[in-house]
C-alpha cells in the first residue's frame, strides 16, 4: 500500500536552527529572515555573500556557480536537503517497494505473453506441416488425373469412337415468309431443312449440302379453337 506523501514544507525539520551562511556564519532570522541561497556545489550563503560566492565559492573554489533561494515553500529541487532523514528513508522504502512490485507485474505479463507466443508458434508449425502434406497429395492426384485423361484419349482414338464434342445438331430454320392456312384458318409457318432422322450429322459435313434434309410442314390440331 502506498502512503500519500505529506507536503514538503511539513516534512522539513526546523532547518532555521542549524542553517548558517558558509562565509559570514550568520543565521536565518525568524522575524526578519535574510535571503539565503544554496549553490549547486552544496553550500549555503546569505544574500550579502552570495554575490561573491557565485563568482567563486568560498568553500570549494568552484567558479560561476548556480544557486537557488532557500525560502518557504522550499523548491522540490532542494527540499530533500532540508528534510528529516527518517522521512526520506521511509519514502525511499516506499519507492523501492513500488518499483519492485511494478517490475514483478511487468515480468509476469511478459512471461504470459511468451507462453502464448510459443503455443501459437507450435500450432502454426503443425498447420504448416499439415498444409504441406495436403499440397503433396493434391499434386499426386493431379498427376494421376492427367495420366488417366491421356490414356482415355488414346483408347478412344484407337477404337474410332467420337466424343460428344465432335457432333452437333443442325439448327431449325423457320421461314416466316413461307406459310399457309390450315383447315381452321390459322397461319402456320413452314419449317425447312429439318433432318429426315432424329440422329446427328458429322461436323465435317459440308454446310451447303442439305441433301439429307427435307421440307416439313407441321401439322397441328387446332380443332379445339373456335373460329
From TrEMBL:
Pfam families: zf-RING_5 (PF14634). It comes from the Eukaryota. Gene3D superfamilies: Zinc/RING finger domain, C3HC4 (zinc finger) (3.30.40.10). GO terms for molecular function: SUMO transferase activity; zinc ion binding. InterPro entries: Zip3/RNF212-like (IPR042123), Znf_RING (IPR001841), Znf_RING/FYVE/PHD (IPR013083), Znf_RING_CS (IPR017907). One of its GO terms (biological process) is protein sumoylation. GO terms for cellular component: synaptonemal complex. The keyword Metal-binding applies. This is RING-type domain-containing protein.
Amino acid at each position: 500500500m502506498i502512503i500519500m506523501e505529506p507536503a514538503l514544507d511539513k516534512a522539513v525539520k526546523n532547518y532555521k536552527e542549524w542553517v548558517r551562511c558558509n562565509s559570514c556564519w550568520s543565521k536565518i532570522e525568524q522575524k526578519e529572515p535574510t535571503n539565503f541561497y544554496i549553490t549547486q556545489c552544496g553550500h549555503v550563503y546569505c544574500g550579502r555573500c552570495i554575490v561573491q560566492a557565485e563568482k567563486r565559492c568560498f568553500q570549494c573554489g568552484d567558479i560561476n556557480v548556480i544557486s537557488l533561494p532557500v525560502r518557504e515553500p522550499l523548491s522540490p529541487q532542494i527540499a530533500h536537503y532540508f528534510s528529516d532523514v527518517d522521512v526520506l528513508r521511509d519514502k525511499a522504502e516506499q519507492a523501492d517497494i513500488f518499483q519492485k512490485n511494478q517490475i514483478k507485474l511487468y515480468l509476469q505479463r511478459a512471461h504470459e505473453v511468451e507462453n502464448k507466443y510459443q503455443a501459437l508458434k507450435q500450432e502454426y508449425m503443425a498447420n504448416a506441416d499439415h498444409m504441406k502434406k495436403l499440397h503433396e497429395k493434391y499434386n499426386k492426384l493431379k498427376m494421376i488425373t492427367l495420366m488417366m485423361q491421356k490414356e482415355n484419349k488414346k483408347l478412344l482414338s484407337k477404337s474410332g469412337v467420337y466424343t460428344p464434342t465432335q457432333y452437333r445438331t443442325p439448327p431449325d430454320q423457320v421461314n416466316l415468309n413461307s406459310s399457309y392456312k390450315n383447315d381452321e384458318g390459322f397461319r402456320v409457318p413452314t419449317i425447312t431443312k429439318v433432318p429426315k432422322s432424329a440422329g446427328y450429322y458429322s461436323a465435317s459435313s459440308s454446310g451447303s449440302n442439305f441433301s439429307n434434309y427435307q421440307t416439313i410442314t407441321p401439322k397441328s390440331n387446332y380443332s379445339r379453337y373456335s373460329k
